[in-house]
Structures are given as C-alpha cells and as structure tokens.
Design brief:
By secondary structure, the chain is an alpha+beta fold. It has one domain: NADH Oxidase. The radius of gyration is 17 Å and the shape is globular.
C-alpha cells in the first residue's frame, strides 16, 4: 500500500497532507450509508448565496449504474477506476431554478462540494480520485441531465490497495512522489 503524505512548507492539517488521488483500490465495498455520509458532507459546502448548485449521481460497484458511469470514462481511466467501490458524478446547475438567474460561480461551488466530500471520505479512510477524463455528452444522456445542468467530474472512491497490482503507466504514477508549486509562486502579498 502506498500512502503519499505531502511534505508541506507550513503546518497544514494532516487531513489535507494525507489526501491524494490513488488509482489502486481494494475489493472492500463501501456501504450505502457510508457513501451517503460522504455525499452529505458535500452538501454542507459553502456556495454563492447558498444556492447549492450541485447534484451528485452515484453508483456502487457491482451495479448496472456503476457500469454505466464507468462506460463514460476515458479509456485511460477505465482500467483502474473499474476497481473503485463507488463512482460519483458531480453535476453543476448553471442557473438558479427559482429565479432563472445565471450562476457565474456554479463551477467553483461544485468544486467546493467535491473537496468537502474528498476530505470526509479520507476522514473515513476512503480515498478519492477526481477525474475530468470522461465523455460529458455520453454522461448527460446516460444520466438524463437537464438543459440547466453540466457534468463537472466523476470521482472514484474506495479503500486504498497496493500500487504493485497496477499495470503501467499507472503503477509508476501511483509511486511517484507528490509535489506542489511553492507558495511564493502562487501567492502574492498586496501592499
């Protein structure tokens, strides 16, 4: 099993230092109640004007819904994502339903909800890998998305397993150390 703890410049909380995106998942299942706990965590994310412009469409491994979500993934994601215990699609709502006002922040808010789910999952020793590599049109048709909805990502969730069981190039990616740009290159103090 490969656990990649971030080597941070500052004293970041362990939950963030320990979060990473594995591709090697064990055969251990996630219960519906556990998955619903993770989804509820996402629902408590902040959003512009508390519009909560998101929906989560999910399926557990071994179900027809899982196979449908898996089929929408890019060919590079399918070989390892098939072993996840659950797949969760994040969907953004472009306009506020009651006022039909365009929500310019829906993608940001969906990202916030996704991050809350990832941290809740890790707190429960469940790892997540967020994917943008999927066919949005195929997913929209499969899930019956409305004209006001946009697929944002698909998240693979599961208990971590050994990197050794992965084929290349996934095994090397699993074992490569994590890195981030230094704070000095992404943040600037405004006088």
């Amino acid at each position: 099993m490969s656990i990649k703890i971030a080597n941070t410049q500052y004293d970041v909380i362990d939950l963030i230092k320990n979060r990473w995106s594995p591709r090697s998942f064990s055969t251990k299942d996630i219960s519906a109640a556990t998955l619903e706990t993770i989804l509820e965590a996402g629902s408590w994310a902040p959003s512009a004007n508390n519009t909560q412009p998101w929906r989560f469409i999910y399926a557990l491994r071994g179900t027809p819904g899982f196979d449908k979500l898996l089929a929408t993934l890019a060919q590079g994601n399918q070989p390892w994502a098939k072993n996840a215990a659950a797949l969760v699609a994040t969907v953004g709502i472009r306009e506020t339903p009651d006022t039909q006002q365009k929500n310019h922040y829906f993608m940001h808010d969906v990202g916030m909800a996704t991050s809350f789910m990832l941290l809740q999952a890790l707190n429960m020793e469940i790892y997540a890998h967020v994917m943008a590599g999927f066919n949005k049109q195929q997913f929209a048709e499969t899930a019956g998305l409305g004209a006001n909805e946009e697929a944002v990502s698909i998240v693979a969730l599961g208990y971590i397993d050994s990197a050794e069981k992965l084929e290349e190039p996934y095994k090397t990616r699993e074992l490569t150390a994590r890195s981030r740009n230094p704070i000095a290159t992404i943040a600037a103090h405004l006088d």
